[in-house]
Amino acid sequence: MPPPPRTVVITVPTLILTLSGAAIFLFFLISSLSYPPPSTCTCSTTKPVDSSPSSSLKERISASVEDIEWVKKQIEVNGLRMQDNVLRKGINPRTRAQQLQDLIQYKGISHYEEEEAKNHTSFPCPGELLVEEHHSNYGEPWAGGRDVFEFLAENSHIAPESRVLEIGCGTLRVGLHFIQYLKPEHFHCLERDELSLMAALRYELPSHGLLQKRPLILKGEDMDFTRFGSGFTYDLIYASAVFLHMPDKLVWVGLERLVDRLKPLDGRIFVSHNVKFCSRLGGDECSRRLKSLGLEYMGKHTHDSLLFNHYEIWFEFRRFKV
Ligand SMILES: C[S@@+](CC[C@H](N)C(=O)[O-])C[C@H]1O[C@@H](n2cnc3c(N)ncnc32)[C@H](O)[C@@H]1O
Question: pLDDT at position 55, please?
Fold first, then answer.
């Protein structure tokens, strides 16, 4: 006997549910197809918030707590710990003196000989600078320059368009970071030491690809700023570990000449370590002298180093008259 024909029983609620599901599906399908293609989009100009680390790079200068956590994690996931720097496969550690001796004796691994030796290097740099002897010129670790930059840039609220003058920029331990950050020609410096200037111009700028920033770095020790030009004001003028090495009289001459070059109210002068050039006059006389120049003392700051147990002391001034 053939099997009885199969009958499919659909109840009314099931039928209604199925039909409404299909209708909703069709509605979304048709409406999605009817959106204009991206090329004809008249979208809002509001950009989505980009929370990737690179999105905040433009605004932030110093490392965030998250940045530090991130780098600690990288050290941890790689299982790294500080090791003795001894001879090992492919690594032959040298002191600066040894490296300089090697450079003189062996001239590096691949090099040109005789006449050719003069024809291939556009801007030959003295060996002492190549082995970075000048990075140890101030006793403190070279990395402290970054701390100073971060403190000054954040506390004077500068932007890449700002103009900055450093008095006594030395080998650009600090200035290098400003030059990197600022627009071309917006970093100026007056420095008296020839060897430091050679290190700055012959090694630091070219080796960091900063020649195109055209910083104006001038040799001088008499606080004469006329050679820096006119018709603009500085947003920041700073002296990092410099005024304490100068006669008080020269510091005052410098300040007097700088007041008109500082942007009124918003511009800042920062002086590191101490302000003995002022306090040695006595409290009242110190305040009177500053006031007569049109300068106002804004307060004392300390700033901790990121990498070593050290803090810098800074004294802040502004020009109170417009
Ligand atoms: C301790 S170093 C600091 C260098 C740099 N500011 C830094 O923080 O790395 C002091 C610098 O001030 C410079 N200096 C001292 N007296 C000066 C003067 N009268 N005019 C210009 N520079 C001067 C020195 O030549 C030296 O480079």
Answer: 45
